[in-house]
Design goal:
By secondary structure, the chain is mainly α. About 60% of the residues lie in helices and about 10% in strands.
Length: about 130
């Protein structure tokens, strides 16, 4: 997936926080101080083209129906995909990301135990 531009990421952050279908009006209301209605439409179309959003069910708004939008990818999946894409271009990227992560103050023994378990599982898959 192509990296998200600043405005696209702002919109996706709304979806990731709300975790539900949103209308164009919902998005415009939430971003009224930073983005015009037309810019929202432009970003929505780009996000659909990139596969980050999908069109959801139509809902009634007043006397008309409007379409909704749903996230097609979670925040975790998006960022993991960005790392994966970068690692395909450069073998050292994946190792560098893990090294950076391990240097974080938020790493706990519980997190390390889960990671070790996942690494052992992957080793078994690779070694058959």
């Amino acid at each position: 997936m192509d990296p998200l531009k600043k405005g696209e990421r702002e919109i996706m952050d709304l979806f990731w926080k709300k975790d539900c279908a949103l209308t164009h009006a919902d998005i415009c209301d939430a971003l009224k101080d930073t983005m015009s209605r037309n810019t929202v439409y432009l970003h929505l179309n780009h996000l659909i083209d990139k596969g980050a959003l999908q069109i959801g069910p139509s809902i009634r708004r007043g006397r008309t129906y409007g379409r909704t939008f749903l996230a097609s990818i979670s925040k975790t999946e998006y960022y993991a995909k960005q790392v994966e894409d970068a690692a395909q271009e450069d073998d050292t990227t994946l190792e560098a990301v893990f090294s950076y992560f391990l240097g974080s103050k938020d790493v706990t023994n519980e997190v390390l135990d889960k990671l070790e378990e996942r690494i052992q599982q992957k080793r078994k898959e690779l070694n058959g």
